[in-house]
Amino acid sequence: MTFIPNSETPNSEKELGTMKLILLGAPGSGKGTQGARLSEKYGIPAISTGDILRDNIRRGTVLGTKAKASMDQGKLVPDDVVIGLIANRIQEKDCGRGFMLDGFPRTVAQADALAALADIDKVVNISVPLNKLTARLTGRRVCGDCGLSYHVSTYEQDRCACGGCLITRPDDNDAAVKVRLDAYIKNTAPLIAYYKAAGKLADIDGDRAIDAVFSDIVSALT
């Protein structure tokens, strides 16, 4: 990985890097929080497959239409559609210096397909014990207006700082969380061994304060 100083900002710690990253971790491990901070620090886009799907469906693209057809039938979006969306996204101008993938790949088959599209520099796996993930997810509250997340263990109010009402996401109940974690163990966890064998895995203890986790990720990328 080559890091290039960002001449557009006086902040000497903010850099633009020609790097291609993947964030791995179970639901609730903190990928979204850490991904946003890494994107800001290194000046590379954080790419979420969920965001890509919603954008393409909204714009009515060919791939978006195919994805919507599967979702409307309660089916998983086929790999060829997801891979096509990723292939298009990483060719956009803002990915010229690199990118960070969150939510892709989800399976070893998708990882093989990604290898044909891009040479990934580092895979950051944020590891948190599964029993603690359940508590994290079921205690999460999200602002219905701005989307900011809170947790009942640290925030007792029922309204966001923006004034919006805090709600529980439909997939943050006990039953749904179990399904999500089971799916992660079955499909995504094998990617840890896949990328470790490739010598690209950085395993990070995610069961700590946000700043401590971020510091270790940055150290692993240096």
CATH superfamily of the domain at 2-44 and 97-129 and 187-221: P-loop containing nucleotide triphosphate hydrolases
CATH topology of the domain at 2-44 and 97-129 and 187-221: Rossmann fold
- The share of residues in extended strands comes to 15-25%
Helix content: 40-55%
Which structural category fits the helices and strands?
Answer: alpha/beta
CATH architecture of the domain at 2-44 and 97-129 and 187-221: 3-Layer(aba) Sandwich
Biggest sheet, in brief?
6 strands, mixed
- Average predicted local confidence, pLDDT: 86
Number of helices: 9
Mass-distribution shape: globular
Rounded to an integer in angstroms, the radius of gyration calculated over CA atoms is: 18 Å
| Unreliable stretches | 2-17
How far apart are the first and last residues' alpha carbons, in Å? 8 Å
CATH class of the domain at 2-44 and 97-129 and 187-221: Alpha Beta
Number of strands: 9
Written as H for each helix and E for each strand, in order along the chain, the element string is: EEHEHHHEHEHEEEHHEH
